[in-house]
Write a structure and sequence with these properties.
The complex is a heterodimer.
Chain A (H helix, E strand, L loop, with lengths): L1 E10 L2 E11 L4 E5 L6 H9 L5 E9 L2 E2 L5 H7 L1 E4 L6 E5 H15 L7 H15 L3 H5 L1 E2 L5 H15 L3 E5 L7 H14 L5 E5 L3 H6 L4 E6 L2 E6 L2 H9 L2 H8 L3
Parallel strand pairs in A: 3-10, 3-11, 6-9, 9-10
Antiparallel strand pairs in A: 1-2, 1-4, 4-5, 7-8, 11-12
Helix pairs in contact in A: 2-3, 4-6, 6-7
Chain B lengths: L4 H15 L8 H14 L14 H8 L22 E6 L2 E3 L10 E3 L6 H6 L10 H9 L4 E5 L7 E7 L5 E3 L2 E6 L4 E10 L6 E11 L4 E9 L4 E11 L4 E10 L2 E10 L5 E10 L4 E10 L5 E10 L4 E10 L6 E11 L5 E10 L4 E10 L3 H8 L5 H17 L5 H14 L1
Parallel strand pairs in B: 1-5, 4-7, 5-8, 6-9, 7-9, 8-10, 9-11, 10-12, 11-13, 12-14, 13-15, 14-16, 15-17, 16-18, 17-19, 18-20
Antiparallel strand pairs in B: 1-2, 3-4
Helix pairs in contact in B: 1-2, 2-5, 6-7
The chains are: A alpha/beta, B alpha/beta.
The structure holds adenosine-5'-triphosphate and magnesium ion.
């Protein structure tokens, strides 16, 4: 699905990603954990094509294509979806209109014809159910005045409609209450298949109880310093990052 | 040859005098006064504070040194009509009765045929000594249009202003619009051009009178071609309990300068001034507004939004006067603008002069670029750059477009807006 090799990225003079290596295959769920400021959101931003970052070294291939060459919109059309840690409010752009435009552009890219108004409405209804998103919210402007939890649900709702091949969930669990966490996690699980993959960025084992990862990676100071199975997350939950920090401090 | 200010002004005055189809309804004394004002002050240039960014003298010097004042005839204006409105047609500044709808129950004529009401109102609102363009119009205005409304009119009145110049032309159309006590009407004004083979400078002037408790909802849609220059002065007098609501949409024209002046001369009245423009190419779109609070307990709102593309210039200048007597005034003004290119310019200037002490006034202006975070968010969902920008600009303009209460007009404005983007 995606292969990241020796990825370096910086903002201005500051190098934030310092050689990331990661391979995610179809059907897999990977969790990325790591202390605040270690570069998790930077990694997802770089993968989605955010222009603030300079990729100084390394390569990313997505289903055989050189991903770093593509515009953000083409990356999405190829099947990447990033659920943002901080979804943006866009006053005046209706959720529905936005999603319909997005879906149709993705379809056009793949040589499919526009979805009919009727089919689109049916699709929206069906996907709303998956994340139990209030229908009223879909008629409002994108994220405008949404509560923190509603914004996160809206991200997963969009993901459900756009059906990506690779979804990156950047702290989608933060700001969710216990019930919402379960709903969102169930939504993600329902959308999982052998053909798509998920990268879950989180600080908490809580989410991983629901979305069970095949692999857990620890990102520290711009590098993946440790990888393992789902037990690695449990270990972190118990011990915190102290050991990791001590071990890798010198190399900083 | 020395190209001084008086030279081009005199050239214009001479040419307009020579083409002289004098209409006769303007009192001679006013004409003399007006010509003297133009001679003394010249066509406004960038040395006049109010025309700092809008140098009309340079436009006249460049394109109107020689004026043929020859026009094409326009036989059909159906494409510009609104279905659910009374359509009135004005061609090259002259009211065209045969192309216009007959409207029963209102007074509608040329100014020359307006009868006794003319004397009571003409030049009473637009002061010839305030602005050379007002003076120029007063001295050389064409047949003009007179509309007087009483009672409540359900169906909107739509004035279609068409220009079609064969050779370079300067025209001075004039309107007098009166709403009698408790009258209510919706007025749409479209400014369009058809096959201009010459350049045209339209110096349009409206005097609008809202008598007690009357209500005017007005729209101006400016969409002329690149040969058209326009100064559009609207001088409104708003009486006690009256409500003036106007929305100006400007999408095309080489130069458009709007002078919109609302004088709130009675207490407990209100005015709502809204505008939306897109400037592109090397065009200049300039909205100057003035809200003059003269009496207590009045409210004024103002919302102008602009988008400047390419090498164009957009200007918003909003004056609010609150006179000593105008206690308990509520006045709000907001101007928001988006620059779409490095070479485009937006100049905004709110000017508040407040002489009363018990008032609520606020104003805000902003000029920025398209929100990059929002743009990235849209693109990250697969929406291409062009559509993403379009969605954001539509969202930006929506607040003003939503104020249109006539469905077919709103559709038209949306279409023109999208085309201009
Ligand atoms: N625009 C920017 N300018 C300067 N520094 C930045 C910018 N964006 C991110 N950084 C820095 O890069 C580092 C990594 O940030 P990033 O947001 O990727 O961390 P994170 O791992 O997602 O943290 P968190 O767990 O708090 O979400 C931080 O030190 C941050 O301050
Ligand atoms: Mg983060």
């Amino acid at each position: 699905m995606i292969t990241i090799k020796n990825l370096h990225a910086s903002i201005g003079d500051k190098e934030i990603l310092k050689g990331i290596n990661l391979t995610v295959k179809a059907g897999e769920v990977h969790a990325i954990m790591g202390p605040n400021g270690s570069g998790k959101s930077t990694l997802s931003g770089v993968l989605a094509g955010k222009e603030d970052y300079d990729v100084t070294e390394g390569e990313v291939t997505f289903n055989g294509k050189d991903f770093l060459e593509l515009s953000p919109e083409d990356r999405a059309r190829e099947g990447l979806f990033l659920a943002f840690q901080y979804p943006v409010e866009i006053p005046g752009v209706s959720n529905i209109n936005f999603l319909k435009t997005a879906l149709n552009e993705i379809r056009a890219y793949r040589g499919q014809e526009e979805i009919s108004a009727k089919d689109f409405l049916a699709l929206i209804k069906e996907k709303q159910k998956i994340v139990e998103l209030d229908a009223k919210l879909t008629n409002r402007s994108v994220n405008e005045g949404f509560s923190g939890g509603e914004k996160k649900r809206n991200e997963i709702f969009q993901m459900a409609v756009l059906e990506p091949k690779l979804a990156i969930l950047d702290e989608t669990d933060s700001g969710l209450d216990i019930d919402a966490l379960r709903i969102v996690a169930n939504g993600v699980n329902k959308l999982k298949s052998k053909d798509n993959a998920t990268i879950v960025i989180t600080h908490y084992q809580r989410l991983l109880d629901y979305i069970v990862p095949d692999f857990v990676h620890i990102l520290y100071n711009g590098k993946i310093v440790k990888s393992g199975g789902k037990e690695l997350a449990l270990e972190l939950e118990a011990k915190g990052y102290d050991e990791i920090k001590k071990q890798f401090e010198e190399t900083v | 040859m020395i190209d001084t200010k008086t030279n081009i002004t005199q050239t214009i005055l001479d040419a307009l005098t020579a083409s002289g189809n004098k209409v006769g309804y303007m009192p001679d004394a006013k004409v003399v006064e007006a010509i003297r004002y133009v001679e003394e002050n010249g066509i406004p240039n960038n040395k006049h504070e109010d025309y700092k960014y809008c140098n009309l003298e340079a436009v006249f010097r460049k394109d109107f040194k020689v004026i043929g004042n020859k026009f094409n005839s326009v036989a059909n204006v159906d494409v510009h009509k609104l279905k659910n409105a009374h359509n009135i047609v004005v061609i090259n500044g002259e009211y065209n009765e045969s192309l216009s709808d007959k409207i029963s129950g209102i007074k509608l004529s040329t100014l020359a045929n307006a009868g006794s009401e003319l004397k009571a109102h003409i030049t009473k609102y637009a002061n010839v000594n305030s602005d050379a363009m007002v003076a120029l119009n007063t001295a050389f205005c064409s047949g003009g249009l007179f509309i007087s409304i009483s009672g409540i009119r359900e169906k909107p009145i739509h004035i279609i202003n068409v220009v079609s110049a064969k050779e370079n032309a300067v025209i001075n159309p004039r309107q007098l619009i009166i709403l009698e006590k408790s009258a209510e009407v919706t007025l749409v004004e479209s400014f369009v051009s058809e096959n201009n083979s010459g350049k045209v400078f339209q110096n349009h002037l409206s005097e609008v009178v809202l008598n007690e408790n009357s209500k005017l909802k007005s729209y101006r849609l400016q969409n002329e071609d690149e040969n058209s220059h326009q100064v559009n002065t609207v001088q409104v007098d708003v009486s006690r309990y009256a409500n003036y609501n106007t929305n100006t949409f400007t999408f095309n024209g080489a130069l458009v300068r709007n002078n919109l002046n609302a004088v709130l001369s009675g207490d407990l009245c209100e005015s709502h001034l809204n505008g939306l423009f897109i400037s592109s190419g090397a065009k200049l779109i300039d909205n100057h507004t003035l809200v003059d609070h003269q009496k207590p307990n009045c409210e004024s709102n103002e919302l102008y939004k602009g988008i400047a593309k390419d090498k164009s210039t957009g200007i918003f200048n909003g004056k609010i006067y609150v006179r000593k007597d105008a206690q308990k005034t509520n006045a709000y003004q907001s101007s928001k603008n988006i620059l779409l290119s490095e070479d485009a310019t937006i100049n905004t200037k709110p000017q508040l002069e407040i002489y009363a002490d018990d008032v609520k006034c606020s104003h805000g202006t902003s000029t920025g670029k398209v929100d990059e975070a929002a743009l990235f968010y849209l693109k990250s969902r697969g929406i291409g750059d062009e559509n993403a920008r379009k969605l954001l600009l539509q969202a930006f303009a929506q607040e003003v477009i939503d104020k249109i209460e006539i469905e077919e007009l709103q559709e038209k404005v949306i279409k023109l807006f999208e085309k201009a983007l």
